[in-house]
Amino acid sequence: MPFELPDLPYAYDALEPYISSQTMHLHHDKHHQAYVTNLNNLIEGTDLEGKSLEDIVVTCWQDPAKEGIFNNAGQHWNHTLFWRIMKKGGGGAPGGELRRRIDDAFGSFESFKEKFKEAAVTVFGSGWGWLAVDGDELKVLKTPNGVNPIVHGMVPILGIDVWEHAYYLDYQNRRPEYVAAFLNHLVDWEVVEEELEKALA
Ligand code: MN3
């Protein structure tokens, strides 16, 4: 069964005015679709066919012969999480266990936001900013290109795409504004909390 592009869990214009329908169409229908198509073509007929996406990412990490597979598999994983952890009318602050763990790890939700913003804004070139579970702890980190924290043994529960294709039409070079809009208006903290529960299970 080849990998498939997941549908967005909301309409293409649901995240306006923070992310335009035009960006969502290009980003989901063209960029994410291309990662899925390339991944399927690259693994067809190899021993990776039929393996889970996580297995493929971890197996191909730092294997120069499998760099193309790694990049496309990582990006398929990353975008699949990215669509799910946003919603119309998102933002605000998390509650429950997630909030307790954020306060424990970063001192406060405000300092978590500062740390996450700094990580995402300072990715040099293309990459991702993350909140991830590392053992029993929450960590903020950034990764280049399509690298996913699972290669470092962590489980990401929130991620922001800071490749220019994610924000250039809407924000041009103003990446900090895009990251702030993501945190303040788009993050679906309920889904992030579900991801935390899965990661700790
Ligand atoms: Mn992208």
Describe this structure in words.
With 201 residues, the protein is mostly helical. It folds into 2 domains: 21-84, Helix Hairpins (Orthogonal Bundle); 96-200, 3-Layer(bab) Sandwich (minor pseudopilin epsh fold), CATH 3.55.40.20. The chain contains 8 helices and 3 strands. It has helices spanning 21-43, 53-60, 67-84, 96-106, 109-121, 164-171, 175-186, 189-200, and strands at residues 127-134, 137-144, 155-161. A 3-stranded antiparallel sheet has the order 2-1-3. The longest helix has 23 residues, at 21-43. The chain starts with 20 loop residues before the first helix and ends with a helix. The model has no long low-confidence stretch (mean pLDDT 97). Manganese (III) ion binds at residues 27, 31, 79, 161, 163, 165-166.
Name a few traits of the molecule:
binds manganese (III) ion, 3 strands, three-stranded antiparallel sheet, Helix Hairpins, single chain, 52% helix, 201 residues, globular, mainly alpha, 2 domains, 8 helices, minor pseudopilin epsh fold
Q: How would you summarize the topology of this molecule?
A:
Elements: H1 21-43, H2 53-60, H3 67-84, H4 96-106, H5 109-121, E1 127-134, E2 137-144, E3 155-161, H6 164-171, H7 175-186, H8 189-200
The protein binds manganese (III) ion.
Question: What is the mean pLDDT?
Answer: 97
- Report the helical percentage: 40-55%
Measured on Cα atoms, how large is the radius of gyration?
16 Å
CATH topology of the largest domain: minor pseudopilin epsh fold
**How many individual helices?**
8
Shape: globular
Strand content: 5-15%
Q: Could you tell me the number of beta strands?
A: 3
Major sheet details? 3 strands, antiparallel
What are the secondary-structure elements, in order, as H or E?
HHHHHEEEHHH
Query: Can you list the ligands bound to this structure?
Result: manganese (III) ion
The CATH architecture assignment of the largest domain turns out to be 3-Layer(bab) Sandwich
* Distance separating the two termini: 27 Å
What do we call the CATH homologous superfamily of the largest domain? Answer: Iron/manganese superoxide dismutase, C-terminal domain
Low-confidence stretches: none
- Order of neighbouring strands in the sheet with most strands: 2-1-3
Q: How many separate domains make up the residues?
A: 2
Q: Indicate the CATH class of the largest domain.
A: Alpha Beta
What structural class is derived from the secondary structure elements?
mainly alpha
